[in-house]
Design goal:
By secondary structure, the chain is mainly beta. The chain is built from no helices and 10 strands.
């Protein structure tokens, strides 16, 4: 039955940014509606759409949403995803008149995972994002992680990330992170 293979969701959201030391506060109201549909025994497609409204000195209304295709086999799993959203940004760039606010972002992500044993898996992902507006930038993140279930409510996750970014202003950076 088609209704058993599809689920629907609605996500309202609200956020507020208030700069310390003065400056105008800004807020974000958003809603997102979506559907997740099983395409077959191992495949699922998720799609969403909505709107985000930024209130403040630079009030804007943006369309947001995304699409994700996921495969989950007995050992191998993978996902490919595209999303358009509005995210909070702030600090660091002193040449911009407003370094605290919200920016439009577009993200592409690919993830692949492999089940090593019944309780452990390894996965890797690469994410590329582009932001526009206040100090727009392009960023890439490569991530590798190992996950092991230790018990019913406990798990161990070890991971490493490599991050790179370059802003529209010519500022670039590279960093890494380790997770445990």
């Amino acid at each position: 039955d088609a209704s058993e293979r599809a689920s629907y969701y609605f996500e309202p959201g609200y956020a507020r940014l208030t700069p310390s030391g003065g400056g105008e506060a800004s807020s974000l109201g958003r809603w997102l509606a979506g559907v997740r549909r099983e395409l077959g025994p191992n495949w699922a497609l998720t799609a969403s759409a909505g709107q985000a409204h930024v209130h403040g000195s630079r009030g804007t209304m943006d369309t947001i949403g995304g699409v994700q295709l996921a495969y989950s086999g007995s050992r191998l799993s993978s996902e490919v995803e595209w999303a358009k959203s509005v995210q909070a940004v702030g600090g660091g760039v002193q040449t911009i008149d407003s370094a605290l606010g919200y920016v439009r972002t577009e993200t592409q992500r690919f993830r692949v995972g492999y089940q090593l044993t019944e309780n452990s898996r390894v996965s890797s992902s690469i994410t590329r994002s582009r932001s526009s507006g206040i100090g727009g930038a392009v960023g890439t993140m490569f991530s590798l992680s190992f996950e092991k279930e230790l018990g019913l409510h406990w798990s161990l996750v070890l991971g490493a990330d490599d991050r790179r970014s370059k802003s529209d202003l010519g500022i670039s950076g590279r960093g890494w992170a380790a997770r445990a």
